[in-house]
Design brief:
Elements: E1 2-5, E2 9-15, E3 21-27, H1 38-52, E4 57-64, E5 69-71, H2 76-80, H3 85-104, E6 109-113, E7 116-118, H4 120-127, E8 130-134, E9 138-140, H5 157-172, E10 175-177, H6 178-184, E11 189-191, H7 196-208, H8 212-225, H9 230-244, H10 249-264
Parallel strand pairs: 3-4, 4-6, 5-7, 6-8, 7-9, 8-11
Antiparallel strand pairs: 1-2, 2-3, 9-10
């Protein structure tokens, strides 16, 4: 099943048998390296708003169209036409809304990364739950070379790569290869370009082994951990654990696990 938001962001659903439905979202501005214009960002937020209300959704794969870029950054033509602080705030708030929509989506989002991932694109990647890149992918935050700071979800980067690497990314504005990004912790996995789709599908299959409500509880809890002190994080975990038993999902999952273990033992 396909949906199209002004041909700027495309949405395709896949039914994985009884395991549930996944969505593939593609930023579709290939001619301009998938740069994020105001119109594209509005379409993106609309798509993720639709997905947020989908109770049957299990996971999302986010990517950019074509082999040259995941997202080459925010639209420089539009940013160059801004002439006052109010316009700057309005534009960058759109970038934040895209990243926030990814972070707040109830199910995991896998970033499928190829080609250039720069500026706003890297902020979007940092907002995803899991990141897998092709060997030819390139990463950078070049905003300071364009007269602006890296902002909004660039604030997520220290939690991924530490403060030293964050300063290196943001202050030097250089571009880094995928293997180096993986060593830093910016992405979790790097594979050969031709193996990218298969590797993404491996992760999708792994996510579908989890029970639907548990994975939603886990993502929400991880997000809360990022924003609260350790003592509050522990208490939030206790609440989330208790909430898991509001349905019979744990009982069913554990019964299936015990049955499989008995079969493996030949019992």
């Amino acid at each position: 099943m396909d949906s199209n938001q002004g041909q700027l962001v495309t949405l395709r659903f896949e039914q994985r048998g009884e395991a549930g439905r996944i969505a593939r979202v593609t930023i579709n501005n290939e001619r301009r390296l998938n740069t994020m214009s105001a119109a594209l960002m509005d379409a993106f937020v609309a798509v993720f708003g639709q997905l947020a209300n989908d109770e049957d959704l299990r996971a999302v794969v986010l990517t950019g169209a074509g082999p040259k870029a995941f997202v080459g950054g925010a639209d420089i033509d539009e940013m160059g036409a801004i002439h006052d602080p109010a316009g700057g705030r309005e534009f960058i708030t759109r970038v934040h809304r895209c990243c926030d929509a990814v972070r707040r989506l109830p199910v995991p989002v896998i970033a499928r990364i190829q080609g250039f991932t720069l500026g706003a694109g890297l902020e979007l990647v940092a907002s995803c739950d899991l990141r897998i890149a092709s060997a030819s992918a390139r990463f950078g935050m070049p905003e300071v070379r364009l007269g602006i700071p890296s902002v909004v979800e660039a604030a997520v980067l220290p939690g991924l790569v530490g403060w030293g690497r964050t300063r290196q990314l943001l202050l030097l504005g250089e571009v880094y290869e995928a293997e180096e990004a993986a060593r830093w912790g910016l992405v979790e996995r790097v594979v050969a370009d031709e193996a990218l789709d298969a590797a993404v599908d491996e992760w999708v299959d792994a996510l579908l082994l989890a029970t639907p409500r548990a994975i939603r509880l886990q993502k929400a809890l991880i997000s809360k951990w990022e924003d609260v002190p350790l003592s509050d994080a522990v208490r939030a975990g206790i609440d989330a654990f208790g909430s898991a038993y509001e349905t019979d999902e744990p009982a069913r999952a554990m019964a299936a696990f015990r049955a499989e273990r008995r079969r493996a033992k030949g019992g």
